[in-house]
């Protein structure tokens, strides 16, 4: 057969695998990734005294990436699609769900960048590497919610995670930082390996990696492969559960948060958690709806155990222990992960899984703003009291009344008490999702954990307004402008949402289905 004839025969097969590219749809993660490379290259040519310019470039780039979401509002765009003859499945989709999560992760990265301006200078972190790693991780986090096949999901998960390992260990010569990075890395690698094993099982059963095609082929799979499919469904969730800090994959959290720079700990608590939750939502409700009897009970038990373990450990934190402030926020984030998992578990039992996923997103939006705000105030106190004890926040109101009021507000939002109305509404949305799905026992467990959370959140809030202990030195009144800006921005978002909590409840219509 002649070469032209062979080429003519191969042409239809190649056309069936042709990938269309919608550049507008992929702009948010692409722009963030390009910006990361630009920062890395620019760092080579900047003298040391001009390194702060890299932080400004990062802020401007993340703001631009957020603006690129505006043309996509109300759109439902898909790209990297195979031709209809090959199934017509797409690997990247920009819908309502994608935009909400990208808003959350890019907004969280922007707030982290504001908070990091002072930390990079004070902790003598290498500016070029720090901003490159932050942007690279944010690019992976922005890619993940748009991913609609298991290969892209896992790649996005690792792109978001690998730079985070380096960020945790970036403080040179700090033994605790290196140890935290190593623990984070080893446990994450093990979780990813288990996830890849689960993905291989699912592929063996269905012969595809696209989420929508998996959902179609799983119910029609060979009955002899039913056990293999069940194992694949369960194992695929492990890596995402690790990122969410769901028990029993949560033990890395306190040591990693205390060893990392404070802004990085805040970033992991918000963006890292969002990445895990997004992956769980996509693989369960899009790829495995027919196996709800497997992942529904599994997520419900994970939610109950996670919130109980996190809140119990946070309650036991000793106020005078070194790094107890960050450790309390670390364990609190584990407890909050349990609440965030409740609607995802409920999605297996309800006829409206879209609303259940939306409840998780609404809670995550509230949590992201106020938790990063709390880390910003902790970073402020740690500037002069590096031990980072809870008792170091005593009498904060006497020297920094605005920051003390802001931290009190953030803690009340996390507790779900007025004036943190947005926290109360978010908890009600999660609680309602459990009740509507018939998970009454999970709603009871959540209610009990909320009561436990009230104790340690209110205990910390009370410390802010107590008189200073005898012999205690007052905190200096001078505060770096980036820290004040981060606290003010987080407080502004929290107050706006508390004044109009229906704004986050509108995200229950995610457009995922």
Automatic annotation (TrEMBL):
<dbReference type="GO" id="GO:0005886">
    <property type="term" value="C:plasma membrane"/>
</dbReference>
<keyword id="KW-1133">Transmembrane helix</keyword>
<feature type="domain" description="NADH:quinone oxidoreductase/Mrp antiporter transmembrane">
    <location>
        <begin position="147"/>
        <end position="449"/>
    </location>
</feature>
<feature type="transmembrane region" description="Helical">
    <location>
        <begin position="225"/>
        <end position="252"/>
    </location>
</feature>
<dbReference type="GO" id="GO:0012505">
    <property type="term" value="C:endomembrane system"/>
</dbReference>
<dbReference type="GO" id="GO:0042773">
    <property type="term" value="P:ATP synthesis coupled electron transport"/>
</dbReference>
<feature type="transmembrane region" description="Helical">
    <location>
        <begin position="403"/>
        <end position="426"/>
    </location>
</feature>
<feature type="transmembrane region" description="Helical">
    <location>
        <begin position="150"/>
        <end position="170"/>
    </location>
</feature>
<keyword id="KW-0812">Transmembrane</keyword>
<dbReference type="Pfam" id="PF00361">
    <property type="entry name" value="Proton_antipo_M"/>
</dbReference>
<dbReference type="InterPro" id="IPR010096">
    <property type="entry name" value="NADH-Q_OxRdtase_suN/2"/>
</dbReference>
<comment type="subunit">
    <text>NDH-1 is composed of 14 different subunits. Subunits NuoA, H, J, K, L, M, N constitute the membrane sector of the complex.</text>
</comment>
<dbReference type="GO" id="GO:0048038">
    <property type="term" value="F:quinone binding"/>
</dbReference>
<keyword id="KW-0874">Quinone</keyword>
<dbReference type="GO" id="GO:0050136">
    <property type="term" value="F:NADH dehydrogenase (quinone) (non-electrogenic) activity"/>
</dbReference>
<keyword id="KW-0813">Transport</keyword>
<feature type="transmembrane region" description="Helical">
    <location>
        <begin position="127"/>
        <end position="144"/>
    </location>
</feature>
<feature type="transmembrane region" description="Helical">
    <location>
        <begin position="94"/>
        <end position="115"/>
    </location>
</feature>
<feature type="transmembrane region" description="Helical">
    <location>
        <begin position="328"/>
        <end position="349"/>
    </location>
</feature>
<keyword id="KW-1003">Cell membrane</keyword>
<feature type="transmembrane region" description="Helical">
    <location>
        <begin position="53"/>
        <end position="74"/>
    </location>
</feature>
<comment type="similarity">
    <text>Belongs to the complex I subunit 2 family.</text>
</comment>
<comment type="function">
    <text>NDH-1 shuttles electrons from NADH, via FMN and iron-sulfur (Fe-S) centers, to quinones in the respiratory chain. The immediate electron acceptor for the enzyme in this species is believed to be a menaquinone. Couples the redox reaction to proton translocation (for every two electrons transferred, four hydrogen ions are translocated across the cytoplasmic membrane), and thus conserves the redox energy in a proton gradient.</text>
</comment>
<keyword id="KW-1278">Translocase</keyword>
<feature type="transmembrane region" description="Helical">
    <location>
        <begin position="264"/>
        <end position="288"/>
    </location>
</feature>
<feature type="transmembrane region" description="Helical">
    <location>
        <begin position="182"/>
        <end position="205"/>
    </location>
</feature>
<dbReference type="InterPro" id="IPR001750">
    <property type="entry name" value="ND/Mrp_TM"/>
</dbReference>
<feature type="transmembrane region" description="Helical">
    <location>
        <begin position="294"/>
        <end position="316"/>
    </location>
</feature>
<dbReference type="GO" id="GO:0008137">
    <property type="term" value="F:NADH dehydrogenase (ubiquinone) activity"/>
</dbReference>
<protein>
    <recommendedName>
        <fullName>NADH-quinone oxidoreductase subunit N</fullName>
        <ecNumber>7.1.1.-</ecNumber>
    </recommendedName>
</protein>
<feature type="transmembrane region" description="Helical">
    <location>
        <begin position="438"/>
        <end position="458"/>
    </location>
</feature>
<keyword id="KW-0472">Membrane</keyword>
<feature type="transmembrane region" description="Helical">
    <location>
        <begin position="25"/>
        <end position="46"/>
    </location>
</feature>
<keyword id="KW-0520">NAD</keyword>
<feature type="transmembrane region" description="Helical">
    <location>
        <begin position="483"/>
        <end position="504"/>
    </location>
</feature>
<feature type="transmembrane region" description="Helical">
    <location>
        <begin position="361"/>
        <end position="382"/>
    </location>
</feature>
């Amino acid at each position: 057969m002649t070469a032209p004839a062979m080429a003519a025969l191969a042409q239809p097969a190649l056309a069936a695998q042709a990938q269309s590219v919608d550049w507008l749809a992929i702009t948010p993660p692409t722009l963030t990734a390009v910006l990361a490379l630009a920062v890395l290259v620019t760092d080579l040519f900047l003298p040391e005294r001009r390194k702060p310019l890299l932080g400004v470039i990062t802020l401007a780039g993340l703001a631009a990436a957020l603006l690129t979401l505006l043309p996509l509002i109300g759109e439902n765009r898909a790209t990297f699609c195979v031709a209809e003859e090959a199934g017509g499945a797409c690997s990247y989709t920009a819908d309502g769900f994608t935009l909400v999560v990208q808003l959350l992760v890019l907004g969280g990265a922007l707030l982290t960048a504001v908070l990091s301006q002072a930390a990079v200078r004070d902790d003598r972190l290498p500016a070029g590497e720090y901003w490159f790693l932050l942007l690279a991780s944010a690019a992976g986090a922005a890619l993940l919610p748009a991913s609609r096949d298991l290969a892209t999901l896992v790649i996005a998960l690792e792109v978001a995670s690998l730079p985070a390992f380096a960020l945790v260990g970036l403080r040179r010569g700090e033994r605790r930082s290196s140890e935290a990075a190593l623990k984070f890395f080893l446990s994450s690698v093990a979780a990813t390996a288990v996830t890849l094993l689960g993905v291989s099982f699912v592929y063996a059963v269905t012969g595809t990696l696209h989420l929508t095609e998996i959902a179609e082929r799983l119910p029609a799979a060979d009955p002899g492969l039913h056990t293999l499919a069940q194992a694949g469904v369960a194992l695929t969730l492990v890596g995402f559960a690790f990122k969410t800090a769901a028990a029993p994959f949560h033990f890395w959290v306190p040591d990693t948060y205390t060893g990392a720079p404070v802004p990085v700990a805040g970033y992991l608590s918000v963006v890292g958690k969002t990445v895990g939750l997004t992956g769980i939502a996509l693989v369960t409700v899009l790829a495995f709806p027919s196996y709800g009897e497997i992942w529904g009970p599994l997520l419900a038990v994970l939610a109950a155990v996670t919130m109980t373990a996190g809140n119990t450990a946070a309650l036991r934190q000793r106020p005078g222990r070194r790094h107890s402030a960050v450790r309390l926020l670390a364990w609190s984030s584990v407890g909050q992960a349990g609440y965030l998992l409740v609607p995802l578990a409920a999605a297996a039992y309800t006829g409206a899984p879209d609303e259940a996923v939306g409840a998780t997103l609404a809670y995550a939006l509230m949590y992201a703003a106020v938790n990063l705000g709390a880390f910003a105030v902790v970073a402020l106190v740690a500037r002069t009291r590096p031990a980072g004890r809870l008792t170091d926040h005593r009498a904060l109101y006497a020297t920094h009344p605005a920051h003390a009021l802001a931290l009190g507000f953030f803690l009340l939002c996390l507790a779900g008490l007025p004036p943190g109305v947005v926290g109360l509404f978010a908890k009600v949305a999660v609680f309602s999702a459990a009740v509507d799905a018939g998970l009454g026992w999970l709603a009871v467990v959540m209610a009990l954990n909320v009561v436990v959370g009230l104790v340690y959140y209110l205990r910390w809030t009370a410390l802010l307004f107590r008189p200073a202990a005898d012999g205690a030195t007052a905190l200096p009144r001078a505060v770096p402008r980036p820290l004040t800006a981060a606290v003010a921005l987080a407080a502004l978002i929290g107050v706006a949402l508390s004044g109009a909590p229906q704004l986050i409840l509108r995200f229950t219509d995610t457009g995922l289905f």
